[in-house]
Amino acid sequence: MTKKPYVFITRKVPDETLAPLKEIAEIHSWTEEEIPVPRETLLEEAKKADGLFTMLSDKIDTKLLDHAPNLKVVANLAVGYDNIDIAAATEKGVVVCNTPDVLTDTTADLTFALLMATARRIVEAADYVKEGKWQNWAPLLMAGSDIHHKTIGIVGMGRIGSAVAKRATGFDMNILYYNRSRNETAEKQLGAKYVSFHTLLEQSDYIVCLAPLTKETENLFTSEVFHKMKRSAIFINASRGAVVDETALQRALEEGVISGAGLDVFKEEPISSEHPLLRLKNVVALPHIGSSSMETRKEMCELVSRNIANVLCGKKPETVVEA
Ligand code: GLV
Ligand code: GLV
Fold first, then answer.
1. 80 Cβ below 6 A of ligand 2
2. How far apart are alpha carbons 187 and 1 in whole angstroms?
3. Ligand 2 atom 4, closest CA
4. Is there a catalytic annotation at residue 28?
5. What is the rounded (10 degree) CA torsion for 20, 25, 28, 34?
6. Ligand 2 pocket, 317 CB below 6 A?
7. Domain spanning 104-285: which CATH class is it, in words?
8. Is 240 a catalytic residue?
9. Any idea where the domains of the chain sit in the sequence?
10. How do residues 202-255 score in pLDDT, each as one tens digit?
């Protein structure tokens, strides 16, 4: 009998989602749910592995790939894959998989919830009640900004961007978008209007970033960009922290250049609790939970398992990242 392929999972994931893998592979797993695998352990495991089941916090770079002679597949539990050196993996013949589609609606729900929470000061208002500060009703108590009939500007009109736009139609919003290429389906079905980045910044009440992190989008949101936005604008980021110059964002919020920000992602994750952005009342900060519903995280784990199993059995994975 030939030896079963060796698969390393870099975090504890729900056991039942591993069924497709269990049939065909010898599974080893980092056993902590909330603590990432140490780099040294990951490098050691990669030396033996035929397949890696990875998280967005694991760096899959040339150093790792150069010392993983048997590796055939890296399957990431995320739609984004900026933690993986795709060119290097491709050159070595390692297949890279991600989890698009299964998380689209869940991530769009969270993005829209973050927009609403920021606009209507939900977190601040809920804390106000719990902290016993609510003494009287007042005409402008916790008055926020309207969402309905306002303009939303979506930067990155892929699957998730389109799903956010769909939600915006229910709020009678005017929808603008900026993307590498036009999305005619979103234009026809959702009435989204393709505009330049400049126009989007000038006209939007809500600027929502869902663009993947690439060389082109890294540090896209600079001080100059925030200065082009309306003073009443609210910035929402549910893609990757590195698309934003966080110091510039912090200044823009402190100086009233824009009015608020809802952030699910940060340059450094977890963000330090001492970070100046977290001291600002007009910031709603979340711990990168875009796709985090029970249903969707389980579906993502199952998809990762099937992708690894397929590649190791010589079949096509369902979702593959093209170099
Ligand atoms: C999460 O950020 C993902 O890329 O799935
Ligand atoms: C992710 O699936 C996207 O294309 O937005």
1. no
2. 56
3. 158
4. no
5. -20
6. no
7. alpha beta
8. yes
9. 6-100+294-312, 104-285
10. 999 999 999 999 999 999 999 999 999 999 999 999 999 999 999 999 999 999
